From TrEMBL:
Residues 42-54 have a biased composition (Polar residues). Residues 59-69 have a biased composition (Basic residues). Residues 29-69 are annotated as: Disordered. This is Uncharacterized protein. It comes from Beta vulgaris subsp. vulgaris.
């Protein structure tokens, strides 16, 4: 019973964290959308941020390999 309680508490915490992050992202999107009303691309860049975070590291490694050659 204790393990189940711990697990559910942990999951609830995770859900709250995710909700908080989503809310922060929505606020970012709202602020960028209002700042750059003429630029429809700005909301896209904020929502795509998590997926693009991985690519710079990959490209950097490739660049380093190219430089070493």
């Amino acid at each position: 019973d204790q393990d189940a309680g711990r697990r559910s508490r942990f999951l609830i915490k995770q859900i709250l964290v995710v909700k908080k992050k989503l809310r922060e992202q929505e606020q970012l999107i709202d602020s960028t959308a209002s700042d750059d009303a003429e630029m429809p691309q700005s909301p896209k860049t904020t929502t795509d941020a998590p997926s693009t975070k991985l690519s710079p590291g990959v490209s950097r490694k490739k660049l380093i390999k190219k430089q070493n050659l």
